[in-house]
Amino acid sequence: MELDLPFIWAGLIAFAVLAYVVLDGFDLGVGILFPLMKSEGDRDLAMNSVAPVWDGNETWLVLGGGGLYAVFPLAYATILPALYAPLIAMLIGLIFRGVSFEFRWRTRRGKFLWDWGFAGGSLLAAFAQGIALGALVQGIEVVDRAYAGGWWDWLTPFTLLTGLALVAGYGLLGATWLVMKTEGALQDRARSLSPVLAVSTLIAIAVVSLVTPFLNPVYLERWFAWPTAVFSLIVPALVLACAWLIYRGLATQRDALPFLASLGLFVLCYTGIGISFYPYMVPPGVTIWQAAAPDASLGFLLAGAAFLIPIILGYTAYAYWVFRGKVDPSEGYH
Fold first, then answer.
1. Coil vs helix vs strand at 333
2. Distance CA 178, CA 195 (A)
3. Domain count of the chain?
4. Are 186 and 45 in contact (CB under 8 A)?
5. At what angle do helices 84-103 and 73-82 cross, to 10 degrees?
């Protein structure tokens, strides 16, 4: 049986992007919430909660972007010109976050500047990612295998909405992560913020979900024509179940449950996007198979991925296992 290599690679790229979103999302969320933390000690503790894993989380972004370049060169060549501005903004935000991790521990007088660098970089990166996602969902104009749109096509009310939605969602992940990983005043603060962020995220999900089917006839058919219309019942029901688990976890002080349920929301939203997109790599006109490199290249790269991805999964799981449990305020990233 001959393997459908473009389909396999599309699944691997989708997995890498999802892994980045759910893993890096909570530490971006911690940065977004930084200005709402009342004391320097709380900010130190919040940063220490993500310090052991934040840079490893971004491995998945490199894998997804590099894989897209190598495996789907047509998609890479059309998506990047369409999204240069938000993607550059995202990278600038990530740079500020990374620098702030190092510099805020090395200064006293200017520490507040790096606090704002960490918060501002996190907010910019999250907002830019949401805008890029929204631009991809609303469609990229491709003519003769090249981007045919304008410089500002990415900036629309819909992309601003998805940008704000992702900021709210990452904020929810950050708050529930702090509920799970900390104790005392910081945990209480995170627990009080979590319901507000959960409601904001659910409202954003609802609005984006209502608008998206009308952006493209393919989306409308996918969600409201039989048999795929079944997903229109299953996915919202599971979203409501995750929302209930977040509420129950916060109400009963089950520290890990709100975070896991928040991750579930992201997985469900990502699944919904995948259902809408398939079989397109660049909606609305470039399919997975049209965007793919030759099978010989895909097969060669798949052999490398089969070796590399288990290693990444292994050291990621090991890092989370080693640093499991509550963060000790007396220890950290110094």
1. coil
2. 14
3. 1
4. yes
5. 80
Nearest partner of 60 among 103, 108, 27, judged by Cα: 27
CA distance 2 to 294: 14
Which is nearest to 244 in space by CA: 198, 175, 295? 198
Closest CA to 319 of 68, 89, 50: 50
State the Cα torsion 199-31-55-69 to the nearest 10°. Answer: 60
Q: Are strands 142-143 and 146-147 parallel, antiparallel or unpaired?
A: antiparallel
* Calpha distance 239→244 (Å, rounded): 9
In a domain, 332, yes or no: no
User: For residue 70, what are the domain limits?
Assistant: 5-321
Q: How many helices (H) and strands (E) does the chain have?
A: 14, 4
**333 assigned to some structural domain:** no
**Which tokens is 123 given?**
């907010």
- Tell me how far apart the alpha carbons of residues 93 and 115 are, in angstroms, rounded to a whole number: 13
Q: Residue 34 carries which DSSP code? A: G
Report the CATH number that the domain containing residue 77 is assigned in CATH.
Answer: 1.20.1630
pTM of the model: 0.92
Is 326 among the domain residues?
no
Distance of CA 109 to the CA centre of its chain: 34
pLDDT in tens, 280-289: 888 887 889 9
Q: Is residue 53 part of a domain?
A: yes
Q: Cα–Cα distance between 242 and 239 in angstroms, integer?
A: 5
Neighbours of 124 (CB within 10 A): 23
Q: What are the tens digits of pLDDT across the range 80-119?
A: 898 999 999 999 999 998 888 888 878 777 788 888 999 9
